[in-house]
């Protein structure tokens, strides 16, 4: 026999998660999609049962409740419908129909898998603007509280998306007429607009488009790269070209490169990925509303910027870096491409982890920051 109270509780909590929009994390469209998926899965479990008609009646009522904005007023109704749904499954359990023999196990599995989907959607529900508006200010406030700078200003160094965030911050603050309280900024391999270059970031588009169409919350980039690593570093080296995206030949210690690939990349919020793909469209990166173009407000920057580009960077080529820095006032920016025609060359991560970075990159950063201290 089933533990009815446990099942009622599980159902009620699941449907109330939907009706409450997961405390505001889920958009209306997401909650509709997620509830539709759950209903479809449950309906398949009963498609050969004479109880399907009763389930459809309850599904319609639950769907209606999920449209209600006053969630507190529908709690009792959700609980009641959950109990009625339990009754349907209990009645089906007494059926001798072979397809329903293991209905209990499949039903619990369906509910648990659905709950995991909701948890993942909540956990990874952020975009670029969340980083910019919440995380960066929190980090800077903490550093100020610990270092207590006399002029209340900090130095900031950002690589790749870290630099994009710094550009975004300077742009936003310049537009709003606010002081970013940064004495100087260094960016490495960063740009707000990749349209004028042959950036391999365009490879992300095949990941972003399905994520948008299917309304999935995450893109497991870290797992994908970890799975691909053996094919980049072992015979027959079918994916060895991926290494060039990270480091130029002989520029990074092999063990460091391995650790970087296996540990540095992680699961990405689909919302973050979708917003970053605007860097590949005309006008460059924009905010989540799609109306604020960060590049347009770079001329308002009053903070000195040192921008590095790697000569063999396939992810953020020098052309992409220049497409951003050319909008910054000339007296506020220093643009530097590192790497020599005959070598050594710098790929995307060589600017921070290459064997020559300590000799060629770091001293220039220190000198620049010292001059603006």
From TrEMBL:
Keywords: Lipid degradation, Lipid metabolism. InterPro entries: AB_hydrolase_1, AB_hydrolase_fold, UCP031088_abhydr. Residues 130-348 form the AB hydrolase-1 domain. GO terms for biological process: lipid catabolic process. It holds the Pfam family Abhydrolase_1. The keyword Nucleotide-binding does not apply. This is AB hydrolase-1 domain-containing protein. It comes from Chenopodium quinoa (Quinoa).
């Amino acid at each position: 026999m089933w533990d009815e109270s446990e099942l009622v509780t599980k159902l009620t909590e699941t449907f109330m998660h939907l009706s409450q929009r997961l405390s505001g994390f889920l958009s209306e469209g997401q909650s509709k999609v997620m509830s539709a998926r759950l209903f479809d899965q449950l309906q398949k479990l009963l498609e050969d049962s004479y109880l399907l008609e009763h389930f459809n009646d309850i599904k319609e009522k639950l769907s209606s409740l999920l449209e209600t904005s006053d969630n507190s007023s529908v709690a009792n109704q959700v609980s009641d419908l959950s109990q009625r749904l339990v009754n349907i499954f209990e009645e089906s359990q007494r059926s001798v129909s072979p397809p329903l023999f293991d209905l209990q196990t499949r039903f619990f599995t369906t509910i648990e898998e659905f709950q995991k989907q909701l948890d993942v959607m909540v956990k990874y529900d952020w975009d670029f603007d969340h980083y910019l508006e919440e995380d960066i200010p929190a980090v800077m406030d903490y550093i100020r509280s610990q270092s207590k700078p006399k002029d209340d200003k900090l130095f900031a160094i950002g690589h790749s998306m870290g630099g994009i965030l710094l550009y975004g911050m300077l742009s936003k603050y310049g537009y709003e007429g606010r002081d970013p309280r940064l004495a100087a900024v260094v960016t490495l391999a960063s740009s707000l607009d990749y349209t004028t270059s042959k950036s391999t970031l365009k490879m992300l588009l095949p990941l972003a488009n399905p994520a948008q169409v299917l309304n999935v919350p995450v893109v497991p980039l870290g797992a994908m790269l970890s799975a691909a690593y053996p094919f980049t570093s072992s015979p027959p080296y079918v994916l060895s070209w991926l290494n060039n995206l990270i480091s130029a030949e002989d520029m990074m210690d092999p063990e460091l490169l391995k650790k970087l690939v296996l540990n540095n990349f992680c699961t990405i919020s689909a919302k973050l990925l979708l917003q970053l793909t605007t860097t590949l469209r005309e006008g460059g990166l924009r905010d989540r509303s799609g109306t604020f173009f960060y590049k347009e407000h770079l001329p308002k920057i009053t903070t000195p910027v040192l921008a590095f580009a790697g000569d063999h960077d396939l992810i953020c080529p020098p052309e992409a870096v220049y497409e951003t820095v050319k909008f910054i006032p000339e007296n506020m920016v220093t643009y530097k491409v590192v790497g020599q025609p005959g070598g050594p060359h710098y790929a995307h991560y060589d600017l921070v982890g290459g064997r020559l970075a300590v000799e060629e990159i770091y001293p220039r950063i220190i000198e620049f920051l010292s001059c603006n201290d």
